[in-house]
């Protein structure tokens, strides 16, 4: 394999020369968004592009989404690159010159930037395949928005045959300027858990409370008490979120009937397993004890949905170098309490993973809105940077892992 500096120079040159082509792909994808597990046209588009560059399509049994394999000039480690491909049920109101043509569906989370970057990387890697001592697996993943796509791909053994040695993924970020890429050592995005409370009392006439067991009063006390877990049980040095976002009790606008039951739904975000386990335990104690104290019966379902997106320290130097190779500026970000199903690939396997944030912010071009906003817009120079970062992650990782 040629020297990395030589390859990164060639990749930078290729990024420049092919930027318009990358952007053509980005604009096409932006105009044709599809919802989770309905990404049929997107899948066909990606397959056609990959095949055109001589990349083999692996049939692992996916209905939507694509797995591609590119073998380099010599045997070596296999590096996976993952991009999610689904869009959201959002009516686009952005100032994009290439708005969605699928009314009511929009790439409002910018997964089109990930796909276009990964397509660009596929093109780069196919061009320089002879200089690669290893192979690349391209994972175009469906259904990230509903947290089911990565699970589906793992059920279909996407990291086997050939066995993957490291995996890289990225998400755009409208919080950091275009031209930068966030490279974080350790946890970048939170573990996401779902909490469901059921508080059972005994309903009746709201004007004659002594005959009832009121679950609403118990629920109110439980809501207040949950707020003490982060302030009193989590160390000030750790971080966590507990939000109850949905409270259901009573019928319609009825004002004088105490209901039998209150249901509450919420979310918990953590970065460390110990903190997560403690919150699980404390919320059970609070729900059960307070309900009992108020004469009710309280139960909590605590569902572990997504693991933390935890960047592996062995890949940190590789990732940092890959960003520098493209000419972009690596930045050290503040972790997000949002979740990412990229964590499924690393938490359900022994494969080390690394996740980037690709800067897409540019106030001059109205690229400032948050994910899922109908105004969301990504600044286009990010695409070539994303492509280069994915591609150089492979060259850097193959080089570093081969030396181990
Ligand atoms: Ni997203």
Quick synopsis:
The protein is of the alpha/beta class and 404 residues long.
Ordered list of secondary-structure elements with their pairings:
Elements (H helix, E strand, L loop, with lengths): L3 H14 L1 H13 L8 H13 L3 E2 L8 E6 L2 E11 L26 H17 L5 E9 L7 H7 L10 E12 L2 E3 L3 E4 L1 E10 L3 E2 L9 H19 L6 E9 L8 E2 L2 E10 L2 H21 L3 E10 L2 E3 L1 H13 L3 E3 L11 H5 L5 E9 L19 H23 L1
Parallel strand pairs: 3-4, 3-5, 5-16, 6-15
Antiparallel strand pairs: 1-2, 2-4, 6-16, 7-14, 8-12, 8-13, 9-11, 10-12
Helix pairs in contact: 1-10, 2-4, 2-10, 4-10, 6-7, 8-10
The structure holds nickel (II) ion.
The site of nickel (II) ion has 5 residues, from loops.
Task: Describe the structure in your own words.
A hairpin with an 8-residue loop joins strand 1 and strand 2. The longest helix is centred in the last third of the chain and has 23 residues. The chain is built from 10 helices and 16 strands. Helix 4 crosses helix 10. The chain is of the alpha/beta class. It has an 8-stranded mixed β-sheet, with helices on both faces. Strands 10-12-8-13 form a 4-stranded antiparallel β-sheet, covered by helices on one side. The protein binds nickel (II) ion. Nickel (II) ion binds next to loops.
